[in-house]
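User: I'll paste a sequence; please echo it back and then give the predicted structure.

Assistant: Echoing your sequence first, then the prediction.
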Amino acid sequence: LIKTNPNFLKAIISRVILFSAFLMLWAYFQKFFVDLGVPIIILGVAWGAHHFFVFIANWFSKQIKLYSSIQSTINIFNLIISALLACFIAMWFFWPQKYVLLFIFCLMFIMNNIRDPFYSELYHKMSASFNRATTISMTMFFKSLLDIPILFFGSFLVAKSTIYPYFLTLAIALAVILFFRIPKNFEQLKSW
C-alpha cells in the first residue's frame, strides 16, 4: 500500500511523528508545571478535564468534522496545534501565566487526541478489509521507530531547559504542515 501510494506514508508519518513529539512533552509535563507553581491537585483536575473533553470530542467526532473531507479536517487540526504551540512558547517567554499556560497545554493535547479518529477513518478508507490490521500494525511500528530518536533528543533538550522540547515539538508540527500535509484527493488514490 505504501509503495503504490506515497500519500499513505505521508498520512502515517503525519500522525505518528506529532504523536511522538507530544509523548515527549507528556513525559515531563508534571515537573514543568509544578516548577511554574501549579499545585499538583490542579494538574490532576486539569488532566482529568482533558480526558473528559477528549472522550466527548471522540464520541461526537462525526459532528466535529470541520470540513467535508477528512483530510481537510486533519490538516486544520494540525494547523491549530502548531498555532497553540507557538502561542504557548511565546507566552512562556513574554507572559508566563501558569494557569493560562496549563489551559493552552491541555488544549494542545485535546486537539492532538481529537485527530486520531479522523486518521483511523482515513486509514480504513484507504485499506482493503484484509489489510486493515496490517495497516494499523505498520502505523504503530512507525510510531515506535520515531519514538526512539524524538524521546532521546528530547531528553537532552529537557536537561538544558524544560521549554526546549516545546521548540522541537513546534518544529515537528511545522514539518507535518509543510511536508506531510494530506492532499485533498487522498481518498481517490485507492490502490486496491
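The two ends are 8 Å apart (CA to CA). DSSP finds eight helices and no strands in the chain.
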